[in-house]
Amino acid sequence: MSGSDPKADLHGYLKLARRVVVWKLDGLSEYDIRRPLTPTGTNLLGIVKHLAGVELGYFGDTFGRHIDEPLLDFDFQAEANPDMWATPDESRDDVVECYRRVCAHADQTIASFPLDAIGRVPWWPVEIAETTLHRILVHMIAETNRHSGHADIVRELIDGAVGHSSRSTNLPDEDAAWWAQYRARLERAAEDAANR
């Protein structure tokens, strides 16, 4: 990050979070990127599709810069959560390329407006609907990183891969035996705490 340009710093953090989310798909099968691994159906490709829709809304509609993306033409009245999963006809490439197009469009919005530019979020309560690019950038950094955390856990459940990239796990460099002992230690601590 630049340290001297707040907008560039915020944009840099958003770009990093976007890369992490897309990396979570690398090397996985079609089944694994779509598999629901939580009771609410959280899956990797659905996270990417959801974030594409969110970026389109916040950096497009909020600032009067809507673009048509057929993949993101959701009917929330007809179905709950249509943005959180990909249909069999929506390929990984379709979803990832849609996300990249939407991010490029968002990047144009970020470059075109100052941080204090006013936009209007149509789905927010009227008393806070008028907001700034600065607030939307912070909101999207939080949103993307929140879902990046979901993706990190889902990916770990699939094949053990964690971190910001294949080169950066942010975890101690230990073998499987160490991790098994560590996990067992945490389990014992949880049981001991529950029995106090």
Keywords summarizing the entry:
2 strands, single chain, Four Helix Bundle (Hemerythrin (Met), subunit A), mainly alpha, 196 residues
Q: Mind explaining what this structure looks like?
A:
This protein has six helices and two strands. The N and C termini lie far apart (47 Å). The protein has a two-stranded antiparallel sheet with strand order 1-2. By secondary structure, it is mostly helical. The longest helix has 27 residues, at 133-159. It has a single domain (6-163), classed as Four Helix Bundle (Hemerythrin (Met), subunit A) (Up-down Bundle), CATH 1.20.120. The chain has helices spanning 6-23, 30-34, 44-59, 92-112, 133-159, 176-194; strands at residues 118-120, 130-132. The chain is globular and about 55 Å long.
Can you summarize this structure?
This protein has six helices and two strands; from the N terminus they run ααααββαα.
Any chance you could write out the topology, listing elements then pairs?
Blueprint: H1 6-23, H2 30-34, H3 44-59, H4 92-112, E1 118-120, E2 130-132, H5 133-159, H6 176-194
Antiparallel strand pairs: 1-2
Helix pairs in contact: 1-4, 1-5, 3-4, 3-5
Could you list the spans in which at least 5 consecutive residues all have pLDDT below 50? none
- What is the strand tally? 2
> What's the tally of helices?
6
Topology as a string of helices (H) and strands (E): HHHHEEHH
Main sheet characteristics: 2 strands, antiparallel
Domain unit count: 1
| Widest sheet: strand ordering | 1-2
CATH class: Mainly Alpha
Q: Which architecture does the CATH hierarchy give at level 2?
A: Up-down Bundle
Shape: globular
| Share in helix | 40-55%
Structural class: mainly alpha
Q: What oligomeric state do the depicted chains represent?
A: single chain
- The value of Rg in angstroms is 19 Å
First-last Cα distance: 47 Å
Mean pLDDT: 92
Strand-residue proportion = under 5%
Looking at the structure, the CATH topology is Four Helix Bundle (Hemerythrin (Met), subunit A)
Considering the protein shown, what is the CATH homologous superfamily?
dinb family like domain
